[in-house]
Amino acid sequence: MNILSSLLVALGLSMDNWAVTIASGCAHREAIAKTYIFKVSTLFAAAHFVMFAAGWLCGAGVGKYIGAVDHWIAFIILLVIGARMVKESREAQAEADVCTLHSFKTLCALAVATSLDALLVGMGLAFTAAPFWLTVATLTVCVFVTSWSGFYVGAYLGRKFGKVMEALGGIVLMLIGVKLLLEGVGIW
Predict the structure, then answer these.
(1) R_g of the chain, CA atoms, integer Å
(2) Which of 9, 75, 79, 149 could form a disulfide with 181 if both were Cys (CB 3.0 to 4.6 A apart)?
(3) Into how many domains does the chain fold?
(4) Confidence at 98, pLDDT banded by 50, 70, 90
(5) Does residue 6 lie in a domain region?
(6) For 9-65, what is each residue's pLDDT tens digit?
(7) 99 Cβ contact partners less than 8 Å away, ≥ 6 residues apart
(8) Is 9 inside any structural domain?
């Protein structure tokens, strides 16, 4: 496995993360501070790093057990958070950034939900000739960059279109959850 293969794996694992950070950024009504984006992007990148490394260390022995439920966990997390975003977009409240999506607890749940596939990919790649450090470093950088850009794109859309984008962001999170569930049960 070379750098191109590592990059393709990293980009593939980053796509759900990018969609989630766009949806999350849509919930913001004001400009997002760069320090906030840095912290959250670091959180998402760290979650992917930890999950990929844990998958690599666990190997296929645990993979069959985690693989049987990971899609359900991600589905439930994304469904609940997406539904909360849609509900909040419908509530009559000030245009301030008061969305529960901005809480650390919720962001950690999103980071875990989007990094579960990295756990399984790490397990699978542990049995190949893939270089661990090259793959995990590429993945971590890719996730950081997609998180950063996703928040900017989402925040722009959130400021431009307001609560409509927050509702759409919640719907996108729920659809990503459904997609992950359908992939997990072998329908998609």
Answers:
(1) 17
(2) 75
(3) 1
(4) very low
(5) no
(6) 888 888 888 888 888 888 776 777 888 889 989 999 999 999 999 988 887 566 566
(7) 27, 28, 85, 88, 166
(8) no
